[in-house]
Design a protein that fits this description.
three-stranded mixed β-sheet; flat; 3 strands; single chain; alpha+beta; 47% helix; 165 residues
Amino acid sequence: MLSVNKEKKKQNTLLSPQIRTTQMMVIYTLLIITYKPISKRLGDFMDDVYNKMQQRCKIYAITYTLSKVKKKLNFGDNFLSQAIFHTSCIYNTDDALSKFSNFGLHFHPCVYNRIKDTWKSRMFRAEYLLSILNTIEPKEDSTSRLAVMHYVLEQVCMGLLYVFW
């Protein structure tokens, strides 16, 4: 189970007869690892669970097959290693993934340093552009201020793309 979100829906009827209804709904994000792919479409599967739980429990499922998970963990997938070994497990049939539990987070120092340097240079450029923003007279030409703010946002977005891509 990756996350839990509890919602409380409340409806008051002010016309006679007065009825007060409160419905509790829980939303779960589940990582499901199966031996074979689920035969249903993922949306249909989530809708079936929602309807079987009398519309009180909604799930968002992330599905993988065991062979794909083993391949990804062997290669070094940080998301799966965090999700499998550092969150609570609701149901487990065997310990097929236990040999991967000793692995730490995977990053190569050279790759990490290159990403870090690119991020710092993008943020330095954005900071510089923000510092010159106050030198532009807003009353004379607001489009030049807007253009500089556009470039600041562009530098931040390029840095984020490089980090997460």
